[in-house]
Specification:
Layout lengths: L4 H14 L4 E9 L4 E8 L6 H4 L18 H11 L3 E7 L3 E9 L11 H11 L4 E8 L2 E6 H7 L10 H17 L14
The structure holds adenosine-5'-triphosphate and magnesium ion.
The site of magnesium ion has 5 residues, from helix 1.
């Protein structure tokens, strides 16, 4: 698939929002030594039964009522498998769901990260009531964004996360911090890394 990781992130995190999770944890781990990139979204939403889980990566499985096909998970699975990795889903009804996709980092089909700051901004501004935690780790460092900490800094008003100026600040903040933990060369655009 010609999708960025950030597009998958939006899809998969939106599933967690739809599942009425109150806490959603997104992680991207770039492990150069192992040559793997892993991406996960974990929520405490309604979860899925074993039976549903066994067919959830089939495009015709959806609980949407507006259309008959659900493509979020099948796309991510296809993309991960194309890159020598895979998709893993752990889910329990009433407890929550964790979706993990892994990719061989050097695979030519590996989706580029895409615009993660804009994606997170969209998710957070769209659902300010959710406790979002984003963690991104590379060999150069780690960045963690926790909306509870931001809300504390905003004097406890979650609705402020809907304000455009707060959203834009958030996007810049994420972008600066993600740039910090990118490898030299990637940052300057010299590296062939996508
Ligand atoms: N985190 C989750 N918690 C509970 N159910 C989930 C979760 N993620 C997916 N599902 C269930 O799996 C179904 C398929 O998900 P998928 O993302 O593949 O398609 P969709 O969300 O239905 O449609 P699309 O992503 O194309 O808009 C969903 O309709 C939902 O019932
Ligand atoms: Mg979906």
């Amino acid at each position: 698939m010609l999708e960025d990781l950030s597009a998958h992130m939006l899809d998969i995190a939106e599933n967690s929002v739809m599942a009425e999770g109150t806490e959603i944890r997104i992680e991207v781990l770039e492990n150069r030594e192992a040559g793997m990139l892993s991406f996960s979204v974990e929520d405490n939403g309604r979860g899925m039964s074993k039976e549903f889980l066994s067919k959830v990566t089939d495009p015709f499985t959806t609980t949407r009522t507006t259309r008959r096909v659900g493509m979020g998970l099948p796309f991510l699975k296809q993309s991960a498998e194309l890159c020598g990795g895979g998709l893993d889903i752990v889910s329990e009804p009433g407890k929550g769901t964790k979706i993990t996709a892994s990719f061989i980092m050097g695979s030519i089909d590996r989706p580029p990260l895409g615009d993660i700051p804009a994606t997170l901004m969209t998710l957070i501004m769209g659902s300010p009531g959710i406790h979002w935690i984003y963690r991104h780790k590379t060999g150069c460092g780690e960045f963690i964004l926790d909306t509870d900490e931001i809300i504390e800094a905003l004097d406890g008003d979650r609705e402020m996360l809907r304000l455009p100026e707060v959203g834009l600040w958030l996007r810049e903040h994420i972008k600066e911090n993600l740039d910090e933990i990118q490898w030299e060369g990637t940052r300057t655009g010299i590296s062939p890394d996508k």
